[in-house]
TrEMBL record, chain A:
Annotated protein name in UniProt: Methyltransferase domain-containing protein
InterPro entries (UniProt xref): LicD_transferase, Methyltransf_25, SAM-dependent_MTases_sf
Species, as recorded: Nocardioides gansuensis
Domain of life: Bacteria
SUPFAM superfamilies with a match to the protein in the record: S-adenosyl-L-methionine-dependent methyltransferases
């Protein structure tokens, strides 16, 4: 990226489509509505050629708010004002506001998200975050990890002694004393369990990164991300983005930095870590900064640590929206079949139960039902409804992509008495091959001794009319049957189906009149 | 012509090697998880304490986070 401010920016037009402008090189610009910064962008990176100039379209998240009149100001990184005029967006006759439902001001952060950035808050509002940051650093220190503020939080502290205005959360990093990914993962798991034991909720991102939820005074919870790192062959690998030659002395022994008046630990030479994170230009603020990911680093991180969150954020998002759906929906055919075929006293494990449409129905038929799903959003929602309505449902947020979770839950469920059956509807076609392997292992642990698995999966590719990537992908039934045979399981019934409703990530109602093919198998475990 | 064939061969070889490296590297993750569970379980198992085994499983599951 070129040095900002070396060429003039001329803005020709600001309207509902975006910003039309001319710039000699890729320039960093700040956009203000009624004197408040809303967004920052790089002309060429975020725009597209338009005639002999550029058109920078509005970020998707901002579009919803472009209604009414506002004074638009565009400044360059050098401080020049390139545009300053009243603009009317949409058709409504009112002042344009970019606020959330409670009226709190929002801004676009460097991930393109519309969030309550620090610059929208009073200093007093930042105190709980500072407290949470110190809590997390303390929790990690107790576990023997020398943690420090990382990424934007470290950048703000070292550069300005303050949070960065366009940032919206606080990050923490540590460099493990271990030098093998395997030990780094074990250590991260151990520390996560220890912190969970102390009463803090946690959520795992990868083998070396997780989130700690720290309660706020108002009862809400604030998630702080903890990124693990380690030295390998003279390089520092720090989850997220860093993988490059690095001296141990640049980290240890830790020094200090000051953030909003509080002294916090920091790498011995934080400037080296900041350069590794943000490049040599880290001293110059860039609210539109985007990490340029090195393909090699990403590949290594993927191999070492990732693969346990396949589409989980997407399902969380999907189930977040599903709150708006009507509470009662009829069961899917597969659970009706299960109910007919299984002994009346068999309890049911619904793996990947989602909003528990089937688990709920089966429970209402008088069966004991255990629902598992990796979407915490779905589980929180259903758990609340189950408590409200008195459904006899047992629900757990379990990520079967993690081997440790699968093994422990498999063992616990296997130890339950009585006949049992397992339901897995559009689970094996919504996960990775590794995830599918884990489903078979779970079934193997729980269903040994002649119990049955009721499976339904997609066999034909879904074409979404809006071109969105389906979260559920077809599987070849022969492959599935062969894999099951490898586990010593026997297919006792097979039905090829057309037109079963399926939620492939964007709501079931969309597919109601479609006729995608799927396959239903009843599988008996020896 | 010959060179291009050699290039394709090398590309295929690199792709195969990458896949093999990926396979090996991803084993660390599974192995680490397995060690974590086994370590926690072995102690009560060695002392043949069934109640403790159940308690360990319960505690482990409770501490998993999400």
């Amino acid at each position: 990226m070129s040095t900002p401010g070396t060429h003039a920016v001329t803005v020709d037009l600001v309207d509902d489509d975006g910003i039309r402008l001319h710039a000699g090189s890729d320039e960093l610009c700040n956009l203000l509505f009624d004197d408040r910064r809303i967004w920052s962008f790089w002309v060429q990176r975020d725009g597209r050629p338009d005639g002999d100039g550029w058109l920078v379209p509005w970020p998707e998240r901002l579009l919803l708010h472009l209604e009414g009149t506002t004074r638009v100001t565009i400044t360059t990184a050098a401080g020049a004002t390139a545009y300053d005029a009243e603009v009317r967006f949409g058709t409504e006759d009112r002042r344009l506001t970019v606020v959330d439902r409670q009226g709190a001001p929002l801004g676009i952060d460097n991930y393109g998200r519309l969030v309550k950035t620090f610059e929208t808050k009073d200093r007093g509002e930042l105190l709980p975050l500072l407290d949470a940051l110190e809590t997390v650093l303390g929790l990690l220190r107790e576990q023997g990890l020398e943690a420090f503020p990382a990424y934007g939080t470290l950048l703000g502290a070292v550069r300005d002694g303050a949070f960065i205005g366009h940032d919206s959360d606080a990050d923490v990093g540590y460099v493990s004393r271990h030098s093998h990914p395997l030990d780094v993962i074990r250590e991260s798991h151990r520390v996560q369990r220890a912190i969970q034991r102390q009463g803090y909720e946690t959520a795992r991102y990868s083998g070396a990164a997780f989130q700690i939820l720290v309660p706020d005074a108002d009862g809400s919870r604030r998630g702080l991300d903890v990124f693990g790192g380690f030295f390998i062959d003279g390089r520092l690998a720090l989850m997220g983005e860093v993988f490059q030659p690095f001296e141990r002395e640049w980290v240890f022994p830790l020094g200090t930095t000051t953030l909003e008046g509080r002294e916090l630990p920091a790498p011995a030479r934080p400037e080296h870590l900041l350069e590794a994170m943000y490049g040599p230009g880290w001293k110059v603020p860039d609210p539109a900064f985007r990490f340029e990911k090195s393909a090699d680093a990403q590949r290594r991180f993927d191999w070492w640590f990732r693969g346990t969150r396949v589409n989980r954020p997407q399902w969380d998002h999907r189930y977040g929206l599903a709150r708006l759906l009507p509470p009662y929906q009829p069961p899917h055919d597969v659970s009706v079949v299960l109910h007919e075929r299984e002994p009346a006293d068999a309890w049911v494990l619904d793996a990947g139960c989602g909003r528990a449409r089937d688990a709920r129905w089966l429970a209402k038929q008088g069966r004991q039902v255990v629902g598992l799903d990796y979407s915490g959003v779905a589980m929180d929602f259903v758990r609340a409804r189950a408590a409200e309505q008195g459904w006899p449902l047992e629900l757990h947020t379990v990520n079967l992509l993690e081997l440790r979770q699968l093994l422990v839950w498999g063992a616990r469920l296997a130890a339950r008495p009585g006949p049992r059956a397992m339901l897995a509807r559009h689970l094996i076609d919504s996960t990775s091959p590794q995830g599918r392997e884990h489903v078979w292992r779970l079934a193997d642990m729980v269903l040994r001794g002649g119990h049955r698995l009721h499976l339904e999966f997609l066999t034909e590719r879904i074409e979404d009319e809006e071109g969105r990537p389906p979260l559920t992908r077809p599987l070849d039934p022969d492959l599935v049957v062969a894999e099951l045979a490898g586990w010593g399981a026997r297919v006792v019934a097979r039905e090829d189906l057309v037109g079963q409703p399926i939620d492939y990530g964007y709501g079931e109602e969309v597919s109601r009149d479609k006729h995608w093919r799927s396959c239903r198998l009843e599988v008996e475990w020896r | 012509m010959k060179l291009r064939g050699r290039e394709r061969e090398l590309e295929a070889r690199i792709a195969a090697l990458e896949a093999q490296v990926a396979e090996c590297q991803s084993l660390h993750h599974r192995f680490a998880e397995l060690m974590d569970v086994v370590t926690e379980l072995l102690v009560p198992l060695a002392s043949r304490d069934e109640a403790k085994v159940q308690e360990t499983l319960q505690k482990y599951a409770d501490e998993l986070g999400s």
